[in-house]
Amino acid sequence: MTPNTQHANPSKNRSPRHRAREFALQGIYQWLLNNEDSGVIDAHIREAHGFDKADREHFDALLHGAINQSLQLREEFAPFIDRGIAELSPIEHAALLIGTYELKNHIEIPYRVVINEAVELTKSFGGQDGHKYVNGVLDKLAVRLRVTEINAK
Fold first, then answer.
1. The dihedral sign for the CA sequence 108, 112, 115, 116
2. Nearest to 134, CA basis, from 150, 114, 115, 149
3. For the segment 98-136, what is each residue's pLDDT rounded down to a tens digit?
4. Tell me, what DSSP letter sits at residue 83?
């Protein structure tokens, strides 16, 4: 990512929290491909164009939380995927890590918002139908992780 990197959908009006998710997705993608240290990735992303408009606290939580808890997060969503983890596209994998992390650790964010944000990330950065896959997996996972919230609806 260069300082002049632009968003995949520049016309969208994005909140600071959504921007944090975009940057976290890019960092996790980089980590998945290169297995770089999260501190190096973090420093690199903070230099990116538009990072100053992101929710830095949420970015930190997502990037470092998803990387540090990646094994546990994969165990959470693995029963709901139809292929091996290694066969997921890096964008789908990163979006599932972020979505699973938020479902588990940020109960103040409604589960529908978590799923919608992961779907939007996958639409912006992933393949043609990857967002449908991410939606299906996180929807099933939410039933297990957010049962109280879902039953209250």
1. negative
2. 115
3. 999 999 999 999 999 999 999 999 999 998 899 999 999
4. S
Q: Is 38 exposed, middle or buried (0-12, 13-18, 19+ CB in 10 A)?
A: middle
pLDDT in tens, 48-81: 999 999 999 999 999 999 999 999 999 999 999 9
Contact in structure between 27 and 45 (CB atoms under 8 Å): yes
Task: Specify the 3-state DSSP secondary structure of 54.
Answer: coil
Distance separating alpha carbons of residues 24 and 30, to the nearest angstrom: 10
For residue 88, give the DSSP letter: S
Residue 57: is it exposed, middle or buried by C-beta count within 10 angstroms (0-12/13-18/19+)?
exposed
Location of structure tokens 């990116």: 48
pTM of the model: 0.91
How far is the C-alpha of 18 from the C-alpha of 42, rounded, in Å?
Answer: 17
